[in-house]
Write a structure and sequence with these properties.
Bound molecules: zinc ion
Radius of gyration: 29 Å
Largest sheet: 2 strands, antiparallel
Strand order of the largest sheet: 1-2
Distance between the termini: 86 Å
Number of strands: 2
């Protein structure tokens, strides 16, 4: 198992340990990975939300265009 020195108490700790076993200092290696993964997850979620918004906006616009065309044809039909 890979080990590294704790920057605070200089004891050897596992690189995969979330915190130092001796002084409780957060393990930077693990913390960075955790933050990055969490950020990626949130970023993905954000992208998905943007995509959903885009789709619903398109649906709304399509619906409105359809409605306008329908109104125009109704108007023309009534006038002829
Ligand atoms: Zn320590």
């Amino acid at each position: 198992m890979k080990q590294k020195k704790c920057p605070q108490c200089k004891n050897l700790i596992s690189v995969k340990a979330p915190t130092c076993l001796y002084c409780g200092r957060p393990n930077k290696f693990v913390t960075n990975n955790y933050v990055k993964r969490k950020w990626d997850k949130e970023h993905k979620q954000e992208k998905l939300n943007n995509f959903r918004n885009l789709i619903s906006n398109k649906t709304l616009i399509t619906f409105m265009v359809f409605l306008i065309i329908l109104l125009i044809s109704l108007y023309k039909y009534n006038n002829s």
